[in-house]
Amino acid sequence: MENNSIQNILESLNYFTPELALMLTFFVLLLVDLFFRKSKYLLPAISLVGFIVSGYLLVYTPDVKGFLFSTGMTNIGLYVIDPFSFFFKILILLAMIYTILFSLSSKEINEAGGNRGEYYVLLSSFALGMFLLTSTIDLLLMYLSFELVSLSSYILAGFTRNVKRSAEASLKYIIFGAVASGAMLYGISILYGLTGTTNLYLINFYLSNQNIESLPLVIAGLLIIGGIGFKISMAPFHFWTPDVYEGAPITITAVLSVASKAAGFALLIRSLKIMFIDYTATNLQSSAWAILSQFKWNELIAGLAVLTMTLGNLAALWQSNLKRMLAYSSIAHAGYMLTGFVILDNQGIMAILIYFFIYLFMNLGAFFVVMLIADKLGSEEMEDYTGLGYKAPFLGVSLTIFLISLTGIPPTAGFVAKLYLFGALIKAKWIWLAVIGVLNSVISLYYYLKVVKNMFLRESEIEYSHNLGHGNLLITLSLLIPTLLFGIYFKPIIEFAEQSVRIFGF
Amino acid sequence: MTTYDLIFYLFALIILVSAFIVVAARNIIYSAFSLLFTFFGVAGIYVLLNADFIAVVQVIIYVGGILVLIIFGVMLTNKITEVEIKTESFQVLPSIIISGIIGGTLVAIFTKTNWKVAEPQILDKTVTEIGRFLVSHYMILFELAGIILLVALIGSVMIARKEKLETEEVEK
To answer: Lower CB density within 10 Å: C or N end of chain B?
Structure first.
């Protein structure tokens, strides 16, 4: 038995290479930081190489491989590789690479001095945790990688020293995060007590073959959804978001709002879909929540989605700080994406994937421009943006395009994202939900355009000249072009998302 | 009620009471010492579950290591015994109602549910079994736990160093 299991682990490691590359990056960065503290470009270069190598390995690992690291007792392992996880891993890597590029020109990060090494080290452990979250099929591994992601992000959120609001953000994040992961662990323990296993597929097998009391199952489900809901800042677990997003360095805010949310959604979709779906049913639409039929899950999630987007949008209306406004807007976007989760058939999941891919570019772009302006102006207040459109035309126009795309107006990519999402809702007969989504987009138009109005329609006396530099120009363009291009030519994303809805075992 | 049950409830009582003191005590020293009994109670429950190795580890690491560290930290911190911890309770009624509802639901779950009961096994060597699991089936978790601890360590050093720099600036 021993030999057999070691063989199996060694074999599994062949499929685990992207994650191994990230681990290696983590350790190399840690060591290099010890010896070459002074160099400015070495650490980011190593992280970039690490992420790119990991991406290369990711593309060249086989498409589908189930049940890695299975040994002995059960033949169902801890880890799977499927197109679904591939999609989210690509998304996470893209977000991480952009974050490193942002960090290179970020004033906050470069002035942090001695701690810069840890910044890149923690970013790679953050990426590793998110990779594991997207393809775990075991509750234990899920919890541990959840903790890895959380711990890295707590520290990164409080990274800029001497900044009071950054330390405050970190502390708030830790306290909320501890409660959330505690709740999730409690839910896991109830589920384990009911089924006697931590493997998602075995839990599904047990739940569909035995009579399980519904109350403990519902409570366990609620607690787990709550724990993951914290990560994706779903109402009513969103209270940390504005404070943390405002306090954290802006590069970290950007990565938290995209990558960590993507990992949370991947985990939510995979775990609930595997655990609670009824395999025997042919019609996925009605059977998605079959095992939990005593409780109307889709209506609960629909309610939470409405709550999330409405709260996010209404709170964003009153913000005068741009970073805080983008934080609330990212809550609202989590709400839109949750509506796709209500359907939970392939159409809905595909809509979420498309949305995420486009959201990556537009949201990162918005944060990057805000960062560039904040580095120059020293503030993110909307008042200070008056007349900026004429003084820094390129940045002004880019920010306008990103914000318009976030609202979802054609011809930007944001429109395509919303179109597919609401289209899926209407197809699945959730028309009231789609209507609320559209109404919410209208609300969001007001606060997004308020920024644009400040930039272009008001004159100001402030002296402002911005020499962007070639690097920053290229980064902005590389985010801007997809945002516009995917608004017109979106076939490739649709195809990519279509291929990626396949979750292992379906 | 068998003796086994009796011992279990005894330990459970110790854990609950001491954990309550940890939260409620105004003086941080009392909290730290009360935590000692919580850890011991948990170790006792592990022994009852035949997990002898885990129980020993619990005593050595939590009681012997972490707790002593906490107490040292408290004692080395200047004047901490005199500092009034600002723990005030507000919104008492709503929180009692909410935690009452949650607690009631959980109690209902625990008493009413048919839990899946594993066959009791008595192993002579739990250490071997745990070791075997950690390097075979749960190898990846074992490695991951190592990385998590490393990240936590880096984080705590970073935060500690931050404070040092700040005090230096203040002294200047």
So the answer is: C
Contact state of A158 with B159 under an 8 Å Cβ cutoff: yes
Burial A196-213 (b: 16+ CB within 10 A, else e): ebbbbbbbbebbbeeebe
Nearest CB to B109; choose among A144, A155, A215: A215
Which domains are present in chain B?
Answer: 3-110+121-171 (1.20.120.1200)
What's the token pair of residue B169? 């600036």
CB contact under 8 A, B137 and A73: yes
Backbone torsion region of residue A81, taken as left when φ is above 0, otherwise alpha when ψ lies between -120 and 50, otherwise beta: beta
Q: Do A148 and B109 make contact, defined as CB atoms within 8 angstroms?
A: no
Whether B10 has a pLDDT exceeding 90, the answer reads yes
* pLDDT at residue number A313: 92
For A8, name the nearest residue in chain B, comparing CA atoms only. Answer: B136
A488 alpha-carbon distance from chain centroid: 25
Please count the residue pairs, one from chain A and one from chain B, whose beta carbons lie less than 8 angstroms apart: 93
Is-contact A316 A447, C-beta < 8 A?
yes
Closest CA to A319 of A447, A441, A169, A408: A447
- Find out whether A382 and A322 touch, Cβ atoms under 8 Å: yes
pTM: 0.90
pLDDT at B171: 41
Mean pLDDT of successive 10-residue segments in chain A (506 residues)? 72 87 93 81 91 92 72 72 90 94 84 77 94 91 93 88 80 91 92 87 82 82 90 86 89 92 92 75 54 72 91 90 90 91 83 92 92 84 81 88 90 90 89 91 90 83 72 89 89 88 72
Which of A191, A194, A195, A214 should be substituted to probe chain B, the one whose Cβ sees the most B Cβ atoms within 10 Å?
A194
Q: Give the three-state DSSP class for A197.
A: coil
How far apart (Å, rounded) are the C-alpha atoms in residues A249 and A262? Answer: 20
User: Which of A147, A168, A206, A217 should we substitute to test contact with B (largest number of B Cβ atoms within 10 Å)?
Assistant: A147
* B contact test, residue of A2, A10, A25, A71 with most B CBs within 10 A: A71
Q: Is the peptide bond before A62 cis (omega within 30 degrees of 0)?
A: no
State yes or no: ipTM above 0.85.
Answer: yes
Output the pLDDT for position B168.
46
- Report the distance separating Cα A409 and Cα A293, nearest Å: 38
Reading the block at residue A199, the tokens are: 């493997």
Contacts 24+ apart (CB under 8 A), B53-59: B53/B126, B53/B127, B53/B130, B54/B126, B54/B130
Q: How far is A454 from chain B (nearest CA, A)?
A: 38
Distance from CA of B78 to the nearest CA of A (A): 23
Q: Closest-CA residue in chain B for A210?
A: B116
